[in-house]
Specification:
single chain, 67 residues, alpha+beta, GMP Synthetase, Chain A, domain 3, three-stranded mixed beta sheet, 1 helix, 16% helix
């Protein structure tokens, strides 16, 4: 999860997810699942699905390239 700019709040939570092959998981299903287990200020309001995550040479995720 990363913070992304929001007009009135300043920052909003966004989840970047890699789906398992053949999965039919939707953005709404993932948000609903997160609401059950996380506090109201912690669950993501935005979900983006990607095939891969950008990585550095040492294997760390490049968060600045996830927007």
């Amino acid at each position: 999860m990363i913070g992304v700019p929001h007009e009135s709040l300043g920052e909003e939570i966004q989840a970047v997810v890699i789906r398992v092959a053949g999965s039919t998981l939707t953005e709404d299903e993932l948000i609903a699942w997160a609401k059950e287990g996380l506090a109201a200020y912690k669950y993501p309001r935005i979900v983006k699905f990607r095939d891969t995550l950008p990585m550095t040479a040492t294997g760390k995720i490049l968060k600045r390239e996830l927007d």
